[in-house]
Design a protein that fits this description.
Layout: H1 7-20, E1 24-30, E2 41-46, H2 50-66, E3 82-86, E4 90-95, H3 97-103, H4 105-108, E5 113-117, E6 123-124
Parallel strand pairs: 2-4
Antiparallel strand pairs: 1-2, 1-5, 3-4, 5-6
Helix pairs in contact: 1-2
């Protein structure tokens, strides 16, 4: 039986997979202290094209699977302005710049602790 990644470890792994595909503005919103939150963590990133959007989503799904994490089908397709991948305790949001600007998830969930992924692949507040 494989030991499945959960919570912060899964959020970090997913953020690193997005970074590997050159996603921009990668942040992790720690929602674990918010009672009404739909997940413990949101991983939010920006992509510049349909091709990059699909590459990031595919990389995250394959990478998660290789780490022993069940990988759901993404909501949205490569032409969507917003792709969502729900791992239950971690929800990934892959957004085009105009959607990221419009929805402003980091402001919507303003009570969350915002963690950013450094160039070294570490999460910092």
């Amino acid at each position: 039986m494989q030991n499945e990644l959960r919570g912060r470890d899964l959020a970090l792994a997913v953020a690193r997979l997005a970074l590997d595909k050159q996603a921009d503005e990668i942040m992790v919103l720690d929602l674990s202290a918010i009672e009404s939150a739909p997940a413990d963590y949101f991983v939010v990133c920006t992509v510049s094209s349909d091709v990059q959007s699909e590459a990031v989503a595919t990389s995250i799904r394959r990478g998660a699977r290789s780490l022993g994490v069940s990988s759901p089908q993404p909501e949205g397709d490569k032409h969507a302005a917003w792709i969502l991948i729900d791992f239950f305790d971690v929800v990934v949001h892959i957004l085009r710049p105009e959607s990221r600007q419009f929805y402003k998830l980091e402001r919507l969930w303003g009570d969350a602790t915002v963690l950013r992924l450094t160039e070294n692949g570490e999460l910092v507040a």
